[in-house]
Amino acid sequence: MSVWHGWSIRTRLTVVSSVVMALLCAIASAFILMAVRGSATDYRQQQLVADSVRVVQELRRKGPPTTIPDPGEVAIQLYNPVGTLVAATEDVKGGPPLGDFGTPDLDTYAIRHVCDMPSFPGECRIVLASPIDLANGVWWLYAASPEVPWYVSGPLLGSLAGSSLLLVLLTALGAYRTVSKTLTPVEAITDKLAKITASDLSQRVPVPHFHDELRRLAVTANQTLDRAESAVDRQRRFASDASHDLRSPLTAMRAEVEEALLHPDEADWQETGKALLESLDRLQHLVSDLLQIARLDAGAPGRSDPVDLAELATGELDRRTRKVTVNRRLTPGVVVRGDRLRLARLLTNLLDNAERHAEREVTLVVERQGDTAVMEVVDDGGGISPEQREVVFQRFARLDAARNRDAGGTGLGLPIARQIAESHGGSLTLEDSPKGARFVLRIPLPG
Question: pTM for the complete prediction?
């Protein structure tokens, strides 16, 4: 079994095909031998009858013969009515009767297959017993012919064996060539996949011309490589952007400390501490967002509890004072199933974003629309052009300078909010508004 597992698929299929063909040839040869042997046996029986008829005709025309010419492989004995051997072929002269058939019907003859006769020990013969009714009584004629061997004849057996061997060899060769041709695309795909590394995902496996399973395999492999390349590119861009955003507060902190150390007597350490705390706050927010992004990308499952969106919004608004006026239009009883902490994070991100870009007020709406829970966060700021509405959901996205002058933004709040919405089976989009930006969250209500 270990040797079998060590063989290649090409060798295994060739061996299996050869064995199957050998079995088919053996079965076909057996049927051919059986059919030919049956025909040969019938022919020999007919020959026995023909030889017996000639002897009977000779007996009726000329009387009892003294000798019987050698008819080849056929042995013949002629007995008179009193059981005396009158004539026989040379090989059975003086021997016992070729068969004991009792008293058969006088109008016909009998044929039997007899083995180990005294005259032919260790052999099997076809024996014919024919009664001859003459005026002086019933004479008996016995004729025996060798049985046809199982292989019929050496030339026939040799031709069948040779034909079978030739068919097996042709089958093995055809199977080997067919499997080799079939596996050529697989080998090409394997060689190409072996050359693809994490640092170079731009290569693609060759696609076979025929529309078969191998073509579907190659197309699927290329689609998988496309997704992997896109994921790696996003990961690289994310790492690059994260490094840049992490470096900015660190650089600011280093500059503040170095300036204070260069002029320690003139430095306002209280102002320096405040500046450092602001940079630390930004750094803390960025690290927190990065950890949240990592958990969402990993597909970490959240809780599935009933959450009243109006109650959740009220709690988040009452938790801290906002710099702008927040108008509330909250419909109670709009309950979804989800992770309360994540939904709170989504709402906080939307409110923080709206607060940074609003001029005087932000409007928060919670309502039911059919079988969907809807939450809207609308600011009265400068708004976002339609062609950039999807850009704001990209990680570390940067729009025009007017929207980038805000302090505290990490560029990850809105992407995190959208991922949280999608993890709850919902959506977060930026839709039309008379003024400012209008973010709309939709989550299906539980059935």
Answer: 0.51
